[in-house]
Each structure stands twice: as structure tokens, then as C-alpha cells.
Specification:
about 80 residues; alpha+beta; four-stranded antiparallel beta sheet; two-stranded antiparallel sheet; 2 helices; about 15% helix
Length: about 80
């Protein structure tokens, strides 16, 4: 990730479309975040799940993951195991 400040606190664990990333914090909560490279600073990061298990359970083929409190929508393309 090109954003040094974000890289200081988060690590990417999956690549999304168009240069987006799915992130987890290096320390602190176990929530899953979405980093949208079309935005800057704090506007680029949105919390999308309370933890990894919740995130995995919410992934469905060809569905949308709506990010609360924003206008952003993440397209989910991974099939649920």
C-alpha cells in the first residue's frame, strides 16, 4: 500500500478490485476494514465486519457488501466455502 500512515496501523490480507485492500489492525480490535484507494486518509478506510469469522460468513457469490455510514459498496465475488 502506498499510504504510509495506513500501513503503520493496518496490514492488508486480501486484494480487492481496482487497488482496494481488505485490512486488519496490527494491534487492537479484530475488525475487518476496507481500504478504497480512490479516497484519501481516514475516508479511505471503512469498517466492514466485527471480526474475521463474521467477514468470512458474510462473503457470498455475486453479492454486495454495504459499508455502513457511507455511500461505498464493495462487490463480493468470492464463493462461500
Amino acid at each position: 500500500m502506498a499510504d504510509d500512515e495506513t500501513s503503520q496501523y493496518f496490514f492488508p490480507f486480501a486484494l480487492g478490485s481496482g487497488g482496494a485492500y481488505f485490512l486488519m489492525k496490527k494491534k487492537g480490535d479484530a475488525c475487518i476494514y476496507y481500504y478504497d484507494s480512490d479516497y484519501m486518509d481516514n475516508e479511505a478506510i471503512s469498517k466492514i465486519a466485527q471480526g474475521f469469522n463474521v467477514f468470512m460468513n458474510n462473503i457470498k457469490s455475486n453479492t454486495e457488501i454495504k459499508i455502513e455510514g457511507t455511500h461505498k459498496v464493495v462487490q463480493g465475488t468470492t464463493r462461500k466455502p
